[in-house]
What does this fold into?
Amino acid sequence: MGHLGERIDTGILERVVDDGARLLLVGPLHPRADTRAFDRLAQRPGVQWVGAVDFDQLPRYLAAASVGLVPYTHSRFNTGSFPLKALEYLAAGLPVVSTSLPAMEWIGGRDIHLADTPEQFSAAVRTLLAAGRDTASDERRRTFAQGHTWDARAGAVLEALESPSTRPPRSRVGGQP
It folds into this structure.
């Protein structure tokens, strides 16, 4: 889900498909993408690429998914990025398999599964697909994601700013506090 471009490791996705998983690609091809690699991937049996979709249509596609994938390369840009799509997957009740980026390690949680090689990534996807989903796990993931909304983050910042340990000392005028 999102722009499909040089940030994505197509070798990982090819392995996922090779090992029998079906793949739904949602999003436009980025101008800097390796078009041959994505065309080759999109033409494989078991891969459906729907291209760009309106934002209000994304919940429909997420509802059809079983696992959210973040197969990012280990570029400098990706290492410094924060893939919001992982939180969107969790908010939709999906478990996530991602390459081990610092932001993904920071998010943590039992529903973020980190794997860096195509073999490890595919194995994690297969394990989650075999386990299936259940209502309690989906709700746990949604609740976890609620702790990472913009409102929740802003609330945490405000709370930290209002904490006595973070308040600067009051200035004293004429020796009076």
About this structure: The mean pLDDT is 90. The first helix runs from residue 10 to 18.
